[in-house]
Amino acid sequence: MPSDTTNQTPYYVTTPIYYVNDRPHIGHCYTTLIADVAARAQRLVGRDVFFLTGTDEHAEKVSKTAAENAKTPYEWATINAERFRDAFRFMNFSNDDFVRTTEDRHKDKASAYIEQLLDQGDIELGDYEGWYDPSQEEYLTEIVAKENDYKSPVTGKPLEKRVEQNYFFRLDKYQDWLEQQITSGEISVLPEARKNEVLGRLKQGLMKVPVSRRIKEGDADWGIRMPGDDAHRIYVWIEALCNYLTIVDTDERKKYWDGEVVHLMAKDIIWFHAIIWPAMLHALGKEPPRTVYAHAYWIAEGTKMSKSLGNFIEIDLLRAYAEKYSLDAVRWFLTTQGPLGANDADFAHSRFIEVYNADLANSVGNSMSRVGNMVHKYYNGIIPGTCNGEFGFPNGSSLQTALKALENAGKAVDDPTRTFRFAEFTSNATDNALRALETVDLESMLDSGRSIVRHVDEFISYCAPFTLAKQLDALDDGDHALTSILYSCAEALRIASLLLSPAMPEKMAELWRNWSCSHLADPNNANSGFVAPLAELARWGGEYSIKKGQQIAKGDALFMRADASEPAPEPAPEPERIG
Ligand code: ME8
Which CATH architecture has domain 11-325? Predict the structure, then answer.
């Protein structure tokens, strides 16, 4: 079912909540970044958005690493939760809340949901023998265990055969319902390749799933007790999934669950999100999520990242890149080059420089400073007039004048019948961006913004305003031609900047300051930060357009060209106060 980008249905986007046994790395930042870009884009569209991220703290591996570091589990969780908070603040994420599963507001409600499932008979006590993956804290089916040679499909560590008396969730009861929901697209599992995988595994049949752990002697007192049975703890995965609901299960926030719910994660944990969680929700009498989107993995310089190889791209390295090339360049690279689809993506320095120069320094940044410089040079930084966006041959008389001027200057264009109808082009680009947003296709959404920049670049090459400027005196309405050209470029780039802003909020705000467009942003609008929805903001020549007489300051180049021969940035040390 398509996302609703036309009306006011609230939009609720989540990331996985991350384990706090260790520090954040590129993978955690990536999922949270795409959630941020989606949230910012939906706010720009005009929707009421809630964006949640946070930390998953009751895992065994958290208490284990805490002990190794001579800390209590809670102390250790707090240190690392702060690291995640810091990293996310640094990445300029606009999350509306940050949940820690050790908070009462989560624990109390998660407990209540489990109690309801117990009372209803959806959770029951029984014996369980299965293959357990200690590194991921999950049981695997016999088929999956065998397929992976009885090793963890994620870490490659050996699986353990465990027998436990446990509480079980009757997942098997929901087989038909799940199949129907996913096949019909009521629950949209994306990308398509992942949906097929999930449906394939679903066909192998569902078993009851364990939802508790028996507390053993010597265990850390860590986790939420099973309601009515102190000998068990709620299995961390089951409790963690509940965070998506616990945090918006309040009078003020329940509209978000009733709106459009989008869960983002990587492919490693799709089963929990596309199967177990929707079934739990259904059993609780709640609506399932609308979209479960599982992206692929980042790898580093061609190699899978792992603890043993010590090649994780940590937040410190991202800080170093941001220091050198700007944070928005890092956000741009990760969002547009990341593993959003079904294939893994490589973080390689050479690729970063290539994309930075091609997309930002030579395209977006260059186009914006070129237009600013021309307005500055030819009209003292004041937009001299407007243009209705129907800038096409043969109707556009100013373009004909421009072409004549170019001919006079001995630079006749190859194809004098070419048209540049900017109003139509920018409106189509905006529509394409909205459509892409429906399926979380953020790369295409941002490319719609870039397509406008490319169009402006082509237009400038085509009608060479800098040549035209030298011919003005020789032409009857030459001034009008130059005005129309520069206005068209500036107005088109203003619209492009809106579409690019979810990925590059700081740089686009800088452009708006330079171009006296700060009226687009509204700091008093706590939800969107914009004065009006995108459809109005992006209307060519509309209320929020560039106006005659508007000042355009020259400003510094938004992105300086990068030198590919310079060494890659080295990780900067983490701020002192942590640890
Ligand atoms: O699984 N590339 O937490 P976690 C891209 N607590 N994304 C990556 C990545 C990579 N190489 N590595 C990790 C958990 N991620 C549970 C979740 S939710 C109710 C509980 C991202 O700390 C990606 O989003 O292991 C992945 O799903 C998540 O981090 C796993 O984070």
Answer: 3-Layer(aba) Sandwich (3.40)
